[in-house]
Design brief:
Length: 431
């Protein structure tokens, strides 16, 4: 392990010498820090408010409202990303989110109708489709090919940790501000300030630094919208030609489904089974998210070393296999300590597999299609999560304890690992 950490430290130092990478990473960290703050405010309002008696179905409905519509439109965002300057997307997208988050805070203070709050939150998450897909599509423009795996270890994982830290700061802020709607409004205002900082930090990147190439940029919005359908079909055909990338995306979708189902179960356990006090339930959820974040961090440490020795697909398969085997005994206890251990393991496996998937996709697709492909990836990622919440709503009892759900998640993990092992053998046979 010492050798692994030494290699990570050395590669990380080399990676941070890339000026473009440092500046792109700063945008990601501030943006996802704000995401973590904003998402905790939503969770507090929808699930943990004293007036709420949220069921798994209500949670699934909230996730569907906030994620599904714009996830289904994700490929259209990709077509625009392949025409708009990605740096401008990061700049104006975050400035727009800052403005809309302030609108959400105003709605909370005004005790506006729930549908209006959801509409405001939906607008903020809509822009997030552009931001996350743009960050992933831009990464190969700021690091060389040799360090792309390291870049995919450091950048998305650091962003996830930033989101976790944002959630923790939001919980801390709620402890020092007055209770009620004003507490959530203060948290959302803090998120708006961070979105503003993320947008301004994008100015440190050159206007054309993140691509696409000037010859491919189509600044006229109407022309871009007209070509959306053709661009989407071209992106799908390109992904179909890259079978390894397509199979890796499918496997990642299954792993994300398992993560989403288990997340909803833990949320319900925190809300109803592990404590009768709402504040204590929120604190337990914060611990679970933090422990899962620690798993993300360890995945960033282990993935470059393991991917070099096992191969990207091999490491992905072993991550799924470990989750499939160990989630079963840990999850069936339905007690906090074993479930927190499971959260750590699932975080490690999910992020390790995602880093591998990101690298496989980036390496397999052409730069001019990356925006579209990563928008498709983003769509699959969120649809799988929302679908998992819907399935969990059907399977979970009011207190969150469901043996059947744990068994299904474990079986899917194992099936995915077997499928990826088979894919790796086929790739090695064709090489």
């Amino acid at each position: 392990m010492a050798g692994t950490q030494g290699s990570l430290t050395h590669d990380g130092r080399v990676l941070l010498r890339f000026t473009g990478f440092r500046r792109l990473l700063a945008v990601r960290l501030l943006s996802q820090l704000a995401d973590g703050v904003y998402q905790v405010a939503l969770a507090a309002y929808v699930v943990f408010s004293p007036e709420s008696e949220a069921s798994a179905g209500a949670i699934a409905a909230a996730m569907a409202v906030l994620l599904l519509p714009y996830s289904l439109l994700g490929p259209f965002a990709g077509v625009l990303l392949d025409r708009w300057r990605r740096r401008q997307v990061l700049l104006y997208g975050n400035l727009l989110r800052a403005t809309m988050a302030l609108g959400t805070a105003a709605l909370l203070l005004a005790t506006a109708p729930t549908w209006l709050f959801y509409l405001s939150a939906l607008s903020v998450t809509a822009v997030n489709r552009f931001i996350l897909a743009g960050l992933s599509a831009a990464l190969p423009r700021v690091v060389d090919g040799e360090r792309l795996v390291m870049g995919n270890s450091v950048s998305p994982t650091a962003g996830t940790l930033a989101a976790t830290l944002g959630g923790a700061t939001a919980l801390g802020l709620r402890l020092v501000v007055p209770d009620g709607a004003s507490a959530d409004a203060w948290v959302v205002t803090w998120a708006a300030a961070l979105y503003l900082a993320a947008g301004l930090s994008a100015l440190r990147l050159r206007r054309d630094a993140l691509g696409p190439d000037a010859s491919q940029v189509q600044p006229r919005l109407l022309a871009a919208v007209i070509s959306t359908a053709r661009g989407l079909l071209a992106g799908l055909r390109h992904l179909e030609e890259r079978r390894v990338a397509g199979s890796a995306l499918l496997a990642m979708g299954l792993l994300r489904f398992c993560y989403g189902a288990l997340f909803v179960m833990v949320l319900m356990l925190c809300r109803y089974a592990w404590s009768e006090d709402i504040d204590e339930g929120m604190a337990l959820l914060g611990v679970a998210v933090g422990v899962s974040g620690a798993g993300f961090f360890l995945a960033a440490v282990l993935t470059p070393w393991c991917a070099r020795r096992l191969g990207r697909l091999g490491w992905m398969a072993w991550c799924a296999a470990a989750a499939g085997v160990l989630v079963l005994p840990l999850g069936l206890s339905f007690r906090p300590t074993p479930m927190l251990a499971a959260a750590f393991l699932v975080g490690l496996a999910s992020q390790g597999a995602k880093i591998s998937t990101d690298t496989v996709v980036q390496s397999a697709v052409d730069d001019r299609f990356r925006g579209r492909v990563f928008a498709l990836y983003d769509m699959l990622y969120n649809v799988a999560f929302v679908g998992a919440a819907g399935v969990a709503a059907l399977m979970l009892p009011p207190d969150g304890r469901s043996v059947a759900l744990v068994l299904v998640a474990s079986a899917l993990y194992v099936a995915t690992s077997l499928g990826v092992f088979r894919l790796r053998r086929r790739v090695e046979a064709d090489a």
